[in-house]
What we know:
Low-confidence stretches: none
Oligomer: single chain
CATH class: Alpha Beta
Radius of gyration: 17 Å
Mean pLDDT: 92
Number of helices: 9
Order of helices and strands: HHEHEHEEHEHHEHHE
Number of strands: 7
Helix content: 40-55%
Strand content: 15-25%
Amino acid sequence: MNTAEYERMYHLEDSYWWYVGRHCLVESILRSRFGAPSPLADPERTILDVGCGTGAMSVRLTKWGRLVSADYSPLALQFSQRRGIPNLVRADAMKLPLASARFDVLIAMDMLEHLPDDITALAEFYRVLKPGGLLIATVPAYPHLWSEHDVAVMHFRRYLRPELLHRVNSAGFRVEKLSYTMTTLYPIVALQRRLSARRPHDSQNPRTSIPIFPAPINFGLKKLLSVENSVAQRINLPFGVTLLTVAKKPS
Length: 251
C-alpha cells in the first residue's frame, strides 16, 4: 500500500467500526482460551502479530503476553513505532527470521491474501509456534467480492471456506474453528461491490472502499459486530465478508 493508505489506516484503526470489530473478535477468542488479561501481561505467554500493519491490534495484544510484531513494510513499522509498540521486526512472512517453536499464539489478521505464496507462510507459522500453539487468522472471503479495493490494498486472492481449510490443514494444523464473519454486512458489501464494478476506475490509481459514516452509525455498526462476534464464538456462521480460522499446532 502507499503512504496515504497507511496514514488513513493509522488514523482509523482505533475507532472505525470495521477495524474495531476485527480486533474485538481476536480479543474475544483470546479471552475464551486464556481468561481475562491481567493488569500485567503474562510473561510466560509469547505472541507474534504477523502483518501488524499500523499497530492497533498489537497495542491490544500487549496485555495478553510478551509480544513481537512483524511486518514486511517499513512504512507499516514506522506507524507501529508511533504507537510505542516494542519488539518490531521487519519480516517476510514466507521466511520469518525467528526461532522455531518460539510462540504460544500467532495472530495473522487479513495478511495471507497479501502474499504470493500463502502455503509457505502457513508452514512458517507452524514452524515458529510451540507445540500446542494457537493460530488465529482472518482472510477476505469470496472471489466474487473482488473489487478495486482488493487491487488498492494489493491482495492476491479472496478465499472460499474449503480452500482455507485445505491450506491450514496442509500446513499441519488442527483446525478448531472455521467460520465466516461480518455476516450481517455481507448483503450490503455484495451490493456495493456489484455497483462499484459498473463504474469506471483508474487502473493506475486504484482506491480503497472505506466509507466514513457519521459517529452514531459508526457506533451502531460496532455494536452490531459485537453481537455478531458473540454469536460467532458459539457457532460457525454460514457466510460473510471475512473468513476466520482458529487452529492449533498439535502438542
